[in-house]
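Example 282, ligand glutamic acid.
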Amino acid sequence: MRKKLTGLVALAATAALTLSACSSASVGSSGGSSDGAGKSIKIGVKFDQPGLGYQDGSKHTGFDVDVATYVAEKLGYKPSQITWVESPSAQREQMLQNHQVDMIFATYSITDARKQVVDFAGPYFVAGQDLLVASNNTDITGPESLEGKNLCSVTGSTSAQKIKDQYSKGVNLLERPGYAECVTALVAGQVDAVTTDDIILAGLAATPANKGKVKVVGHPFSTENYGVGLPKGSKATCEKVNAAIKSMIDDGTWQKLVDKNTAGTGYTPNKQENPPAQDACA
Ligand code: GLU
């Protein structure tokens, strides 16, 4: 009954006021909105990370987009009811706090610092920080070999933070708003390496513009648990999202989405860590 009403609301937008009242879009305090045009959900994703969150004309593709679409469906939102909103690394917490988005699926690592200001469901994937270098580079083999090098990463990321905290000695860190900009700088010879999660680097390295020019070093030096960012106080939504993630893993969809979105990149997820079990909601 709930599903049927939901469909009617979307189709008969003008007559939807009374219907929408009994087919509430609410999935907790923060799961979406319902108005005269029917219910909808604003989901934050990356627009510039091929294979993860990528805007291709009017289409959004990638693992984060596919996982978000699956989870949204379980929460009662059809793909047509999703509004994709760009969520750059440095703006994610703020976008959740301001309710510019209802949830974020954007290679968003669960960290204690971020948990002070936002909630996380998940994790739904585990990546590791790595380095991208020119294909003919032989001297950069890990974060210890960055002394005297120009390195690019993204403002507000755990990747840039880890370099500052642990590997900053003699490293010239350049921060950009997105990883694609870092890879452009690498291909142009302006930096010696780019650092972030291995799966992000693999996706960027496999694009036609970069293929053959760059390579992932392949020695991950962190554990990045990708969570679903939610506004603080979203325990009920968090539990629903976790149940959806678990069913996505159990029904085989997770593996299919990983395979589909990493095809042609040479990337394989860390088998010890994936697929992950979900944390209890705070
Ligand atoms: N997973 C890391 C983070 O959340 C790096 C990737 C990103 O910036 O989205 O900061």
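Summary: The pocket of glutamic acid is lined by residues 89, 106-109, 154, 157-159, 196-197, 200, 224 (CB under 6 Å).
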